[in-house]
Amino acid sequence: MDKLIIKGGKKLSGEVTVSGSKNASLPIFVSTILAPGRNEISNVPFLRDINTTIKVLETLGAVVEGNGNVVGIDTTNVNNHEATYELVKTMRASVLVLGPLLARLGKARVSLPGGCAIGARPINLHLKGLAALGADINLTHGYVEAKAKRLRGARINFDISTVGGTEHLMMAAATAKGETILENAAREPEIVDLAIVLNNMGAKIEGAGTDTIRITGVNELGPVSHRVMPDRIEAGTFMIAAAITGGDIRIRNMQLEHLDALVFKLQDVGVEIINKDNIVRVKGPRKIRGINIKTRPYPGFPTDMQAQFMALMCLADGASVISENIFENRFMHVSELMRFGADITVEGNTATVKGIKKLSGAPVMATDLRASACLILAGLAADNTTEVSRIYHLDRGYESIEKKLAGLGADIQRVKE
Ligand SMILES: CC(=O)N[C@H]1[C@@H](OP(=O)(O)OP(=O)(O)OC[C@H]2O[C@@H](n3ccc(=O)[nH]c3=O)[C@H](O)[C@@H]2O)O[C@H](CO)[C@@H](O)[C@@H]1O
Ligand SMILES: C=C(OP(=O)(O)O)C(=O)O
Fold it and tell me: Which positions in this protein are listed as binding UDP-N-acetyl-alpha-D-glucosamine (predicted)?
């Protein structure tokens, strides 16, 4: 197993390029099930989750070939309707194949994903929505079995804003008979990217990016070429890397407007952010101000940036209150941050962080994807050496992060444990 060794204290400088978005790529890959033929997806990040998605698609009968960051997915012969526990347990997004398989083959058998390190993460709203579209759904032996001759449009009102649920039903409804309206839909940019793909395949989807999405079902979809949007969470992580080290960096291939909530908060902290000619310059402050954040569905502050922001607040002048409102167990990084000497108390879904002058490098263990990024950020700012182990979580979602950070002047190395 690999671990990262970081010698902290270097101010980052120079330029870094953001990769394609993991959270957009996964549903886009899955959507190709609906479009028989050869689809070509570009700006795909090299990640473990992408490999898992490819494995899932190959199991279903797709032929996938990769050439750098361009992946060809030929779904002409998708004929297997089953995604096993082995595949779904390694990556929750695999469950999204359920709706597209049902739409394409009339039946699907997909393992329930179960919870993960950050919370229970149920899919009841996905299943309720598919049932509203006319699917006959049974849960047996840890699997969802679904059948439908042809899905039919329906009006669906989500109790909770769900990104995965919105994406899943948008895909399932694209070839349903009649009109589907998704109310209280999630508005994340990754949903808009998926809608662009589906519309280019021939779907009729309006309103993606708002809370009401209208889908007029069509009989069939055809293959597409698509360039995946930049990863806003990777971009946000680099912004905090500049902030926490008092650095001055330029970030290429990011869409700043996708990160408004983070940008406003970073400006409150004292970070300077300048967007010129599609390059975003981020200058860390001399003194980090402590401020409060609450995670919310988009366009609110993203839960996927909460852990990284907490690392920054550990070094703030003053206290900060961080509320996590999306996932019930997304504070696993707190006890690891405390190994750096951070002063944090947690009560329910709220963490109070009292800023300290200096973090002190330590051996720590990553517990989930964004927690891994949080520990790297703390290590970049800490004195002495930090060792981050269990970084397989990191490899699920950040492409070559240690190489990109080293390119910005960080002293960071990957070694075998
Ligand atoms: C709103 C939000 O910030 N969503 C994040 C979530 O998406 P992801 O799609 O994984 O999660 P959801 O948006 O579906 O979950 C939002 C909330 O709804 C609940 N829920 C969801 C589905 C369901 O059927 N029943 C149910 O109760 C979840 O437990 C959670 O509390 O994680 C992704 C990966 O970290 C992020 O990119 C998304 O931005
Ligand atoms: C938790 C994340 O991903 P997933 O939904 O794939 O677990 C994430 O991207 O931060």
Answer: 92, 304, 326
